[in-house]
Amino acid sequence: MNKLFFLLLSCVVVIFSACKNENPKQHPNILWITCEDISPFLGCYGDEQAHTPNLDDLAKQGVLYSNFYANAPVCAPARFTILTGVHASSAGTMNMRSQYRIPDEWKTYPEYLQEAGYYCTNNSKTDYNHFKPGKFWDESSNKAHYKNRASGQPFFAVFNYTTTHESKIFNYKPEDLKHSLHDMVLPDYVPDRPAIREDMARLYDNISRMDKQAGELLLELEELGLKDSTIVFYYSDHGGVYPRAKRFLHRTGTWVPLIIRFPDMYAHLAPEEAGGSTDRLTSFVDLAPTVLSLAGINAPDYMEGSAFLGDYESTPQQELFLFRNRMDERIDFMRAITDGRYRYQMNFMPHRPHGQYLEYLWRAASMQAWDKAYQNGECNEAQSAFWEAKPVEELYDMGQDPWEVSNLANESEFSGVLTKMRSKLKNRMLDLHDSGFIPEGMMKEINDSSIPYQFTRSESYPLEPMLDLMLAPSTSGGEYKDKLLAGLRSENDMIRYWAAVKCISLEEVSEDIRAGLIILLPDENAEVSLMACEALYKLGEKDLVLPLMKNHLADENEWVVLLALNIIEYFAAADQMFLQTELEGLLKDERIKYIVRASDRILKELRN
Length: 608
Known about the structure:
Layout: H1 2-22, E1 29-35, H2 53-61, E2 63-65, E3 68-69, H3 75-84, H4 88-91, H5 109-115, E4 119-123, E5 139-140, E6 155-161, H6 194-223, E7 230-236, H7 251-254, E8 258-261, E9 276-278, E10 282-283, H8 287-294, E11 320-324, E12 334-338, E13 342-347, H9 365-375, H10 381-384, E14 393-397, H11 415-431, H12 440-449, H13 452-455, H14 463-471, H15 478-488, H16 493-504, H17 511-520, H18 526-538, H19 542-552, H20 558-568, H21 573-577, H22 580-586, H23 593-607
Parallel strand pairs: 1-6, 1-7, 2-9, 3-10, 4-5, 4-6
Antiparallel strand pairs: 2-8, 7-8, 11-12, 12-13, 13-14
Helix pairs in contact: 6-9, 14-16, 15-16, 15-17, 16-18, 17-18, 18-19, 18-20, 20-23, 22-23
């Protein structure tokens, strides 16, 4: 009997132990607190102007990331990058408020979390910059809340606060400001004007309000007894909202705060002790694989980010990739890479200034004040650079020059750094099959018949030849002249387009290049013709160009029309008058609001 008893007891112990070992580990709850349009203007980041006690306290309880970047300096492409773990520039979704298709097999990170048993909520902003049918969230509204999950179900919840959005500085009473105008530390690249100080003070007032909202959400989490089982993230959706920040690829537009608090239950996942900081390079594209890793999920191969926490944490990256294309009605193209100290930028349209007029941005009194100061000749060299043609390459030592006003690209002592960073940027663009070289009119046509992400991975997309063409010196002589002529004569639309773009910024143009541009004027691809028009207009060939511009303003492809308007913006007033009737007709164009904004801008300038 005793032997039988002990045998049964042993079996029970073995079975109990086996069951215990087979229980899955407890998934952490994950709470994201996000805000809009701020750089690391928080007390915990050393900003003495900021009053942010709740987020400062969160940093004392958690880990502060000092090298966290938005891959794009504006919301929609940045959010796409977060949602998918794929750079928007890789997927073809980098232009602001575009709706291009992505591969059907891709899933968003909340879909993977839902499959693992999570209840996923979003309160409430979406703005994901792509078209894909389907439901990403269990709840997505301004009432969405993790409290609605099933009993015992882990949750992933996003609460996004718009309190700091740029629109909040458009209308306010200066006498209501809480922060002192005299305490504002202005960037080195802007003139000291009352309107700029006022907008900065308003931004800090809004940050204080946002901090209070974050504190209330954290208190609610604690009152519900969930603090000890929830990993909390706080970050901003890109930099801003002072001049030359949001929308611009500078450090001011891409460097953002990130704080993560790990409760005791998950303290082993933290990279540092509570109250510590890490300088590990991280960016938005890493958020999806990191959240999946925290939930015990290995990210799919197509995701381009790297998990920096959890079961599948990867080796730290050495560089981060940043991108920018069309912002609202203004067309531009630039790419950058940073190793945390240096930031290198290539401007593929150097003839366009950073300071292109954007209707929405110019609603800020600070932008109007800076614009006026420049027009009145009241800006120094650093303050004027924003309004003038861009250098082809920019290189900054962010440790020594946090406002990025001293371009080191032409300094001989930094030639080694420049060469290294240029090579790394080129290789990264090739690795990602960067879709930025596809003009948006062509992108629309590609999207009608295929998926842009897949197109850029086909032989139809000549990325490396275009990169070689655009990275070559801006000269019309010698070996490069032959390469440029070959580009103008290429059978590929995109190569012809970028060869024409390159000609715009040449200091001297030979007669055979001029002739090559003239041949492109009747090109069957409207965007190729338009870039030839711009290059030839600069060369004084107005009689050839202006009649064609009338035709392009009537194109059935709305993105061709927008490109034409971007070009006409820089025509002389007399030549804009030649197109006045067509411009007035576009004020009623209902295809995209950007056509109306760009047309209205030109006409207002004519009336003034």
